[in-house]
Amino acid sequence: MGRYLSIFLCCARACLVRDMTFRANFLLECLTSVGWMSMNLAFYLLVFTFTSEIGRNTGWTREPFFAFVATGLIINAIVQAFFMPSAEELTEMVRTGGLDGVLVQPLDAQFLLSMHRFDFSSLANGFVGIGLLVWALLRMEHAPPPIAWLLYPLTILCGVAILYSLIVMLAAATILMGRNQSLYDFWFYLTNFSRYPAEIYAGPWGSPLRALCTFVIPILLVVNVPARVIAQPFAGQTWGWVAAAIVAAGGALVLSRVIFQAALAKYRSASS
Known about the structure:
The protein contains twelve helices and no strands. Helix 8 runs antiparallel to helix 11.
C-alpha cells in the first residue's frame, strides 16, 4: 500500500506541475467550470421562487436541496479530477498500443490505468460545493446530529466508489471494443440521474426507472444517501439507505474488478 500511495502522489505531483506550467489555461478551466455551475445554481434559485419544495412532502426545501446539490458537486469533482482523465486516455492507449507498455509494468494494471493522470481544475467545483454546503447547513431549520457528521464522509466515499467502479467498467468496454470515443458521453448521460432527489422518479415511468437506478445500476445512491444523511432529519430509514450505499459500493468495486480483469484477458496487443 505504501508503494502504491507513493506512486499515486508522484503522479499527482507531476500532473500538478504540468497544470501550473500553463497557469492561464488552468485558471480559465477553473473559471469555466465554476461559471457553468453558477448558471445551474441560478436556475435552481429561479425554481425556488415559484415553489418552496421539490415534490410534495419530500423534505427537499431550498436549503436541503442546495445541500444535495453541494454533495453532488463534491463527489463529481473528486471523480472527475482523479479518475476520469485517465479513463479518457485509455481509448487512445488501446488504439495506439500504449496499453502494452502499461501491462508490462510491475504494478497493478487497473491502478495505473485509472489513476495516472489528474485534472486539478475539476476540483474548483468541489470547493464551490463545500462553500454551498456550509451556506445551506447554516440556514437549515435543524442541525445535523453528530452521527450524521460521521456518516457523511463515509457515504461520500461510497458514492465515489460507485462512480469509480462505473468508470472502470466503461474502461473495460474500451479494451474489448478497441475504440470507444463515446465513453464520456455515456458517463454524462448516466450520471445525470444522480443529480436529482430520488423522489422525483415516481409514476408509471419514474418508478421503474428509480428501481433500475437503485438496485441494478445504483447511480441514485451516489448523491441521495450522503445528502439525506446531512440534510434530512435523521430517522430509522436513514440507516437502511446507508447500508444500501455500503453494500452497493462494495459490490460495484468487486464487479468492476472482475469485468476489468476479464477484459484484459481478452486484450490483444496493437501489434498482434
